[in-house]
């Protein structure tokens, strides 16, 4: 019996030893294979080149010329979406087992994170003493009354509306005047306020018709100059590229008007038909801060409402402090309304 038990024990130990030996051989073979696979650096060169080019576009977008089809502005309009190419390239690099491609991907990841990484987090605070909102209501909106009620329900103290059809203005007035005691409509844009308004006038943005206005709003914390603007639309055409010449001229004119503003506190509300990455809006964006960029919740894309891809509806400020910025639920328009909370009284800041 003792001999039999000893034999069984010896057989078990031998079997265990054989399994350990086989496992060790497999691991050694795999390690040698990885060390000896020189193709790991040769594979995925095309993927690596694409990654480097992507990093170059992200870092040097300002140098992409607008001479042909406004290619630079078109690229800048949708620049954040270029980040979607990164996980695609990562998957290809992993499937190809390419160390070269994986190393090259560090470049676009670093540049994209530097440009847009801050927008992935919520920066909204709990402060502020004035809430503002803006909405391109769409001239073809089938439910203007419902749209007006939705915007008023946001709790905004001052509301700007763009693309107001003349026949729909009475509907908006009837719905909003219940909440806002003061309002003015100039051409196709309007401003509604809980607080008194004065010095209302059109702003010439070189269109030949009125799509921009200015008013002074006497808030409890002081006077604020409010600008409302709807810059011309842009189009992407096969034969002409990104057509934005009229929009660019109007942006320059709006920038000149804001530059000459006498009041220190300025809020610009409106549909600028461009993102703040677009160099064509520099005449405006160089003077003002984006509430979304400073204190926003995510990217704040506002258009198109069915699948927002770009923030072309803007709230920009000077002399007041952004405390929060967000998009509102969809209405009957093809744009989402956007809102922000700002601090007008910055004396204690």
Automatic annotation (TrEMBL):
Endonuclease/exonuclease/phosphatase domain residues: 133-335
Keywords assigned: Membrane, Transmembrane, Transmembrane helix
Entry-linked SUPFAM superfamilies: DNase I-like
Pfam families referenced in this protein's UniProt entry, alphabetically: Exo_endo_phos
Residues passing through the membrane, by range: 40-58, 78-95, 102-120
InterPro entries recorded: Endo/exonu/phosph_ase_sf, Endo/exonuclease/phosphatase
Protein name: Teicoplanin resistance protein VanJ
């Amino acid at each position: 019996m003792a001999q039999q038990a000893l034999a069984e024990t010896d057989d078990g130990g031998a079997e265990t030893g054989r399994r350990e030996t086989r496992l060790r051989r497999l691991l050694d073979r795999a390690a040698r294979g990885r060390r000896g696979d020189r193709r790991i650096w040769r594979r995925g060169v095309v993927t690596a080149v694409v990654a480097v080019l992507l990093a170059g576009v992200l870092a040097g977008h300002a140098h992409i010329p607008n001479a042909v089809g406004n290619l630079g502005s078109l690229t800048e309009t949708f620049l954040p979406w270029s980040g979607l190419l990164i996980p695609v390239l990562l998957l290809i690099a992993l499937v190809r087992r390419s160390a070269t491609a994986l190393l090259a991907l560090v470049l676009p990841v670093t540049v994209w994170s530097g440009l847009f990484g801050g927008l992935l987090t919520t920066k909204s605070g709990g402060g502020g003493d004035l809430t503002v909102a803006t909405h391109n209501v769409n001239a073809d909106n089938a439910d203007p009354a419902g749209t007006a009620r939705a915007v008023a329900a946001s709790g905004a103290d001052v509301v700007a509306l763009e693309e107001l059809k003349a026949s729909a203005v009475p509907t908006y007035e009837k719905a909003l005047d219940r909440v806002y005691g003061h309002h003015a409509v100039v051409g196709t844009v309007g401003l509604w306020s809980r607080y008194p308004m004065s010095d209302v006038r059109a702003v010439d943005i070189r269109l030949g018709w009125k799509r921009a206005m200015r008013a002074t709003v006497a808030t409890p914390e002081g006077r604020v100059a409010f600008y409302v603007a709807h810059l011309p639309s842009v189009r992407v055409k096969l034969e002409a590229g990104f057509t934005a010449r009229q929009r660019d001229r109007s942006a320059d004119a709006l920038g000149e008007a804001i530059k000459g503003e006498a009041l220190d506190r300025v809020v610009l509300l409106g549909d600028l038909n461009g993102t703040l990455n677009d160099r064509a809006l520099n005449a405006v964006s160089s003077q003002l801060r984006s509430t979304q960029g400073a204190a926003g919740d995510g990217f704040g894309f506002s258009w198109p409402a069915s699948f927002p891809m770009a923030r072309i509806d803007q709230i920009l400020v000077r002399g007041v402090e952004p405390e929060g910025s967000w998009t509102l639920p969809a209405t009957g328009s093809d744009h989402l309304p956007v809102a922000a909370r700002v601090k007008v009284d910055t004396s204690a800041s």
